[in-house]
TrEMBL record:
Domain of life assignment: Bacteria
Protein name as catalogued: Class III extradiol dioxygenase subunit B-like domain-containing protein
CDD domains the record matches: ED_3B_N_AMMECR1 (cd07951)
Amino acid sequence: MLVAAAVCPCPPLLVPEVAAGAAPELDAARAACSDALGVLAAARPDLLVVVGTAEPGGRGPFPQGTPGTFRGFGVDVDVRLGSATGAAPERELPASLAVGAWLLERTGWADAPIEGLGVADTLEPGRCAETGRELAGRADRVALLVMGDASACRTLKAPGYLDERAAPFDAEVARALEAADVAALGAIDPALARELKAAGRAPWQILAGAAHESPLTGALLYEDAPYGVGYLVAAWS
């Protein structure tokens, strides 16, 4: 069953080398992510699964030890999803899972085996819920690291330009994460989320499916919209 979850944003800008001179602007977000991962460690899980959206080539499961890189963003930074296992990886982590792997490396995660799962941002809510239930059943004590941004339409300079629906959308997601409200997360409109470029919708709904039988409480650790993109950090335990 699900015993804990951390929800973190997944911009490569979280990696200071990628952000370069703008790195200090996300120091508070990085600190909140570290706090959320501390909640995962305290739950003593048997298995940690990192979930994030991915393009077609990055979808599906990723075993422990899978490498990832930020070289595509112009920096010489490589990561690995947990410790190497000796098996030859078939492919690299998608960006969302690479950011998750970087966060785990940064906090020195060594508390449980790790796996990754890349999903389509178009995965329909019912399938998200089913996927979450499957993940929760993988071990007696499962933890999730859920990677995903909120809307990308909060300002005129945002990637999706300004959309007046973005701030209320993000506020409702933040409320649901803080309250561990699985019904509200499961009810997020995928069409609206896509219009607002909210990459976290499918991972959040996978979390909702995983937590449907787990009496978890939530805490919202960070909420801001730097660069016009909503970033939320939450912990469930």
